[in-house]
Design goal:
Elements lengths: L31 E3 L6 E3 L4 E9 L3 E7 L5 E7 L10 E2 L4 E4 L12 E6 L2 H6 L3 E2 L1 H7 L26 H4 L4 H14 L3 E2 L2 E2 L8 H17 L9 H4 L4 H10 L15 H18 L2
Antiparallel strand pairs: 1-8, 2-7, 3-4, 3-6, 4-5, 5-8, 8-9, 10-11
Helix pairs in contact: 4-5, 7-8
Amino acid sequence: MPYVQYSLNYPAADLGDAFGATAGRPNPHRGQDVAPDGGGSVYAIADGTLVWDWYSAGLGNVAVIAHADGKFSGYCHMAHESPLTIGSPVARNQAIGEIGATGSLQNGRHLHFTVATSMAGAAGGFNVIDPMTWIAAHSATASVLASSAGTPLGVSPAAMFTSTQYDGEPGPIYWTKVQSELAARGWYTNNGVPCTIDGKPGPVTHHGHARLQAAILNERRGNLPRTTTEEDGIPGPVFWTLAQTIGRAYGYAWGIDGIPGPNTEEALYKLTAEWLNKYGR
């Protein structure tokens, strides 16, 4: 029988190091380890969209799913890349890969599961939250429901100011302005049907958000290579190299290597928020 992970009646014997564990570690554990005998399939914990399928030196083969509440679940040390294509919709309990032992941080075959507030965070172990707490909060439904957010009655997105350029943490106003800009560009539809501008980031918002950020980066790129992310919505090394280079004006002070980290994303959010406040619809 396939190994179905993360049910809340999960046998305690199948759970490895918990989130925040410190025993034998130089830093607190940033996810939940699951170590079933004999391995098995990796299953999505909630509905969403596959947005990342990459090999990391430390975490091995990593798949990341974007969920409707703006959180991202990461599945690390998988045996192989996911057979799914980036951008594919994923249903709760759908198999997305196999448990493995890839990456230098593995200590035997197991799954390292993360939940984070950013895509790169879920893949890299930063901006993380306790995954078991998140699972418990969303266990009653087959889909993770977005939290309540929206535009104040009678106020247009253009009149709303997002402070994200200062704090680096996207909120409802930021996402409302993103959605409004995407709608104006014709990038905010689901199978041709316009989506609601409600400040609740979901897969369509995140996909369009990457396209918008790429367009902003290309406006600022100077003589640097052009990223095609505005066309496919999938950030790649050129996208992140541009984000890091231009991000130096927004607090990024680390190496320019095309590999996203928390400081890369924070600088990019600040750049995007500044652009939205100045030019957004």
